[in-house]
Specification:
The protein has about 525 residues and is an alpha+beta fold. About 70% of the residues lie in helices and about 10% in strands. The protein folds into three domains: about 1-215, Aspartate receptor, ligand-binding domain (Four Helix Bundle (Hemerythrin (Met), subunit A), Up-down Bundle); about 230-355, Helix Hairpins, CATH 1.10.287; about 355-505, Histidine kinase-like ATPase, C-terminal domain (Heat Shock Protein 90). The protein is built from eleven helices and seven strands. α9 (about 400-415) packs antiparallel against α11. The longest helix has about 90 residues, at about 140-225. Mean pLDDT is about 80; it is low at about 465-470.
Length: about 525
């Protein structure tokens, strides 16, 4: 089998040669079958001819017997008409003898000619007997029959019987030969067919194994590669496409081993770098949490003193100072909200944010959100509604403060990005959860940017930031608070048609998460 694989030839040519050899074997078997059939047909034709000759010989023998019988009858009944029957039987005798003579070989024709000569002589005697019978000379006719006709007929009968026996022996010999030829042909054909099939199977096995063995070897290597065991090789004796494939697979395996080693080293380095980055991120979050707390204390003092000045606790405030003081308070509160967002995000990232689980009412939460933002809605002339499903349980469990903060962020964004129309807050039961929704008729969000709205410090585009302000932390913090409750949040929106933010929280959340 290996020598087939080592032949330097394309696989297609090897297969074509194998198929050609098998085809030639079957063609040879078919040719031998045709030769055998032709020989059997020839033997059958010879047997048929022998049978016909035997029938003619038997017919001659029967006709001769009838002539002898009719002659004897003519002498007994003393009737010339009986002799005429002998003549008619002689015609049948001569016709059958002529047919037999045309069918036999030259040696047998000599015997037939002797039979014909004897028959002609017998017919002369029969004519003489007929004349004697006609003249009433029965005794002379009987004497002629006994002395000349009967011995002559017996001589002819002996020759005809010999002919019949010879033809019968020839037919028996042909029949036996035909039977032996049939058996011999069957044996030879069966042997030839068995040898052809064995050669075809052997050739097919050799060719197929020479092709399948490298496939098995390649399959084993591919299994090793799929299992992450790189560096193996495929060794096959083929000097064809399979040999080239084996060499390429071996080269690929070695290259994968090299890349795997490099990747493992890179993974180790990346793991060490990630550990350092995680430490740096945690240090950053702790720093921001501490700094946000330190910044919020003096900022609250500034806002307090500004409010005291605006209220006249330190005396009347000149008119030209009232507007700057109002601007200081507005920007201070905005800065305080930003610091609070950064503080919440820093606590969450530092793992210091905890939820205070308690029983609360969804009706009260959405009511407080509406009360907090109603003035902003009225200022912009927007319709601001809340809807609570009557089927929602009156008492739920969760961190009401953080849930309200989530709704404030969502509703505040909705009011900020809506110029006309309205904003609606809904609370409804959704299986074992409460589903909060905030929908608006604002500017909407492009479909290709929906996946980015919950990212930190991200907004849809720069024009939104310039026109409406904000740091992009509100939605990120909202998402983290929802997930801390064991819920999920998503958004549905179309550009210039409005948005709808939804989040679900278990009816009774027992998670006191520290994220």
């Amino acid at each position: 089998m290996s020598w087939v694989a080592q032949v330097r030839a394309p696989v297609q040519r090897k297969l074509l040669v194998a198929f050609l050899l098998i085809t030639l074997l079957f063609i040879a078997m078919g040719a031998f079958s045709l030769f055998t059939i032709r020989e059997m047909s020839r033997q059958s034709e010879l047997l048929d001819r022998a049978h016909q000759r035997l029938e003619r010989a038997q017919e001659i023998h029967h006709s001769l017997a009838m002539q002898m019988h009719l002659t004897a009858m003519a002498l007994l009944v003393r009737d010339e008409a009986a002799v005429a029957s002998v003549l008619r039987e002689n015609n049948r005798f001569n016709e059958a003898l002529a047919q037999l003579e045309a069918a036999v070989e030259d040696p047998e024709r000599v015997v037939i000619q002797k039979v014909r000569a004897g028959q002609e002589e017998a017919m002369v005697i029969v004519a003489d007997i007929a004349n004697l019978v006609r003249d009433g000379k029965i005794a002379a006719a009987t004497q002629l029959h006994a002395s000349r006709e009967d011995p002559l007929y017996r001589s002819i009968d002996a020759r005809v019987a010999e002919m019949v026996q010879r033809e019968n022996a020839g037919m028996v010999s042909l029949r036996d030969g035909l039977r032996a030829a049939q058996q011999r042909s069957l044996v030879v054909m069966a042997s030839f067919a068995a040898i052809s099939v064995l050669l075809a199977l052997g050739g097919g096995f050799v060719i197929s194994w020479a092709l399948i063995r490298p496939v098995y070897a390649a399959h084993g290597l591919l299994n090793e590669l799929a299992g992450g065991r790189f560096g193996g090789t495929v060794t096959v004796p083929n000097r064809d496409e399979f040999g080239e494939l084996a060499a390429r697979l071996s080269a690929t395996s070695r290259e994968l081993a090299r890349l795997d080693a490099e990747q493992r080293c890179a993974a180790q380095e990346l793991g060490a770098l990630n550990a350092k980055l995680e430490q740096a991120s945690k240090a950053k979050s702790e720093f921001l949490a501490n700094m946000s707390h330190e910044l919020r204390t003096p900022l609250n003092a500034i806002l307090g003193f500004t409010e005291m000045l605006s209220d006249g606790l330190y005396g009347p405030v000149p008119a030209q100072y009232k507007e700057p003081l109002a601007d200081i308070q507005t920007n201070g509160r905005h800065l305080l909200r930003l610091i609070n967002d950064v503080l919440d995000l820093s606590k969450i990232e530092a793992g210091r944010m905890e939820l205070a689980m308690e029983e609360y009412s969804a009706q009260e939460v959405v009511g407080m959100v509406r009360a907090s933002l109603r003035s902003l809605a009225e200022e912009k002339g927007l319709d601001f509604k809340v809807e609570v499903d009557p089927g929602l349980p009156e008492v739920l469990r969760g961190d009401a403060k953080r849930i309200m903060q989530c709704l404030l962020n969502l509703a505040g964004n909705a009011l900020k990005f809506t110029k006309r129309g309205g904003v609606t807050i809904r609370a409804a039961r959704d299986g074992d959860c409460v589903r909060y929704s905030v929908s608006d008729t604002g500017i909407g969000i492009p479909t290709d940017q929906l996946a980015e709205v919950f990212a930190e410090f991200r907004q849809v585009d720069a024009t939104v930031t310039r026109e409406f302000g904000g740091t992009g932390l509100g939605l990120s913090i909202t998402k983290k608070f929802v997930e801390m409750h064991g819920g999920r949040i998503w958004v549905e929106s179309r550009l210039n048609e409005g948005s709808a933010f939804h989040f679900t929280i278990p009816l009774r959340s027992e998670i006191a998460s520290t994220v």
